[in-house]
Design brief:
mainly alpha
Length: 167
């Protein structure tokens, strides 16, 4: 699991860098990118400090408390970043098409977080965690796909423009 946290941290950081290079930088988008970088840092902390997987009621140790705190901050930052980015996409014509899907996935994260809370009350905290993390990962994956799509579209537009200029 430790390797998964490090890979996820690197992936979220790479996504933040890709966003920085591909979207119009407004105050909202800058804050969202910063939150993604903080989420990435928190995931590194989650890897360094293992959770209390065998404790009856985690977190049971200081390492577990640090792990859970880093996890909460990381995934909350992703949730907030999703809403900030969906709002900032209205000012960038290349990203306007993605505004609605981003907002819908952000709402899905809120729903998954509420479900996590309900499942935690009945003792199914692990299932709730996995559902919430899965929804966050779907948002990250779809966002990464859109970053790639915008980059490919811009590259093709540049090539098309160069061909028109040379003919």
């Amino acid at each position: 699991m430790t390797a998964a946290f490090y890979v996820l941290a690197l992936s979220v950081f790479a996504l933040a860098l890709g966003l920085f290079r591909s979207i119009a930088l407004t105050n909202l988008s800058r804050v969202a990118i910063l939150l993604l970088c903080l989420a990435s840092s928190g995931m590194v902390v989650m890897g360094v400090f293992p959770g209390d997987v065998h404790a009856l009621h985690p977190p049971a140790t200081i390492m577990g408390v640090i792990h859970w705190t880093a996890a909460g901050i990381s995934f909350l930052n992703i949730l907030i970043a999703a809403f900030l980015l969906s709002s900032s996409f209205k000012s960038d014509e290349r990203w306007q098409e993605f505004r609605r899907p981003c907002f819908i996935l952000a709402l899905a994260m809120v729903g998954a977080l509420l479900l996590y809370g309900i499942l935690a009350l009945v003792g199914w905290i692990g299932i709730g965690q996995r559902i919430y993390i899965a929804v966050c990962l779907v948002w990250l994956l779809v966002l990464a796909g859109w970053v790639w799509f915008v980059g490919v579209r811009e590259t093709l537009d540049l090539k098309r423009q160069n061909m028109l200029d040379h003919s």
